């Protein structure tokens, strides 16, 4: 599909669950994209979103085949990501999907190959690394603020989902768990800052064999069996030579670990939660006190979510807007399918290493995403 600077990428959303609200709310902020229709296996859900955002509700199959749609935004559950994305690619549509690209790296590889064969764009969340905090950290790294990266830590720790989700058991089965569910945010941010990962080692365990659901709902007070590790400590070896300890756990009540800290030959850099677009980024030069930069006043860093009482920045659609511009410029989108596949390969390798006790070589590599400069970020706004 050809596109000029005067055209908008016409987007059809498949999957009208809670995450679709953020995408639909943010779409008007960006140049070159327009959500025109939506579909869901639950027709009523599609009708509700269509009415709220002045869209056209459609059947899933009809939407994928619609010649008036240029790109499918795949917001279905992870188990449906591969099927919907592949159907869209075979129908000649560009695709941007929520994470993960597929539930297995084999699925992700098929999607990347299919997009390449058909000369279509394939992009994937997370795009949080393109937010204000991620861009500021990337500028610091590019400027040599910490010198050559040597080591670091990344931690995603908490008590899991059963205290707030009324039916959380799927989070604790194969294909999910803290590595697959939250790992994409941390790993994507680190690949953005330091390039691809070449090898991993890991140990894995679970704190409890069964979990008690305490969230309100019909299953409150019931238990379910855990089918995947809930605490995994891994060691990541990057092509650049840096080694980072990456810990994920849903067995922790309280901790004081920072989300990401990177240490180099000239200093250290501390990043906020990579699941967010904004937050404070702190730099220590050669042991000096931390100097923190609050990115909330920067582009794509201001709090805007949740709607009722905003306390964080959420600019989902940013990666898709960059993909739309990539079509015009005939370049690789920053939140690309290749990047998502590499991260998926790393997550599978972490789990395999935790299961076998054997270090795993990552079967893919990827070019470090191009830095999103401030003028480029601003040009994506409508």
UniProtKB/TrEMBL annotation:
The keyword Oxidoreductase applies. Residues 135-270 form the GFO/IDH/MocA-like oxidoreductase domain. Residues 9-122 form the Gfo/Idh/MocA-like oxidoreductase N-terminal domain. GO terms for molecular function: nucleotide binding; oxidoreductase activity. The keyword Oxidoreductase applies. InterPro entries: Gfo/Idh/MocA-like_OxRdtase_N, Gfo/Idh/MocA_oxidrdct_glycsds, GFO_IDH_MocA-like_dom, NAD(P)-bd_dom_sf. It comes from the Bacteria. Gene3D superfamilies: Dihydrodipicolinate Reductase, domain 2 (3.30.360.10), NAD(P)-binding Rossmann-like Domain (3.40.50.720). Keywords: Oxidoreductase, Plasmid. This is Gfo/Idh/MocA family oxidoreductase. The lineage of its organism: Bacteria, Pseudomonadati, Pseudomonadota, Alphaproteobacteria, Hyphomicrobiales.
């Amino acid at each position: 599909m050809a596109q000029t600077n005067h055209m908008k990428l016409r987007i059809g959303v498949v999957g009208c669950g809670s995450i679709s609200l953020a995408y639909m709310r943010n779409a008007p902020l960006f140049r070159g994209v327009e959500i025109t229709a939506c579909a869901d296996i639950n027709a009523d859900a599609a009708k509700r979103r269509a009415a709220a955002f002045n869209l056209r509700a459609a059947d899933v199959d009809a939407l994928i085949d619609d010649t008036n749609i240029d790109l499918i935004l795949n917001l279905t559950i992870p188990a449906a990501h591969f099927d919907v994305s592949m159907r869209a690619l075979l129908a000649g549509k560009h695709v941007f999907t929520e994470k993960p690209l597929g539930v297995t790296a084999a699925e992700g590889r098929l999607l990347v190959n299919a997009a390449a064969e058909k000369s279509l764009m394939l992009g994937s969340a997370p795009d949080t690394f393109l937010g204000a905090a991620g861009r500021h950290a990337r500028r610091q790294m590019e400027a040599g603020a910490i010198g050559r990266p040597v080591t670091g830590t990344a931690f995603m720790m908490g008590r899991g989902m059963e205290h707030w989700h009324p039916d959380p058991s799927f989070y604790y089965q194969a294909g999910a768990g803290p590595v697959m569910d939250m790992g994409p945010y941390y790993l994507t941010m680190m690949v953005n800052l330091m390039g691809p990962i070449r090898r991993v080692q890991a140990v894995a365990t679970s704190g409890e064999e069964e979990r008690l659901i305490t969230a309100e709902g019909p299953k409150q007070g019931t238990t379910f069996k855990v089918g995947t590790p809930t605490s995994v400590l891994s060691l990541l070896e990057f092509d650049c030579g840096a080694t980072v300890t990456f810990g994920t756990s849903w067995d922790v009540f309280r901790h004081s670990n920072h989300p990401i800290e990177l240490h180099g030959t000239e200093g250290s850099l501390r990043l906020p939660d990579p699941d967010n677009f904004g937050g404070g980024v702190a730099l220590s030069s050669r042991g000096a006190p931390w100097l923190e930069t609050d990115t909330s006043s920067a582009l794509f860093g201001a709090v805007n979510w949740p709607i009722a009482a905003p306390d964080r920045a959420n600019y989902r659609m940013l990666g898709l807007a960059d993909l739309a511009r990539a079509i015009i410029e005939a370049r690789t989108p920053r939140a690309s399918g290749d990047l998502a596949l590499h991260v998926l390969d790393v997550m599978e390798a972490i789990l395999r290493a935790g299961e076998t006790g054997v270090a795993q070589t990552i079967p893919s590599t990827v070019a470090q995403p191009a830095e999103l400069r401030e003028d480029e970020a601003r040009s994506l706004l409508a």
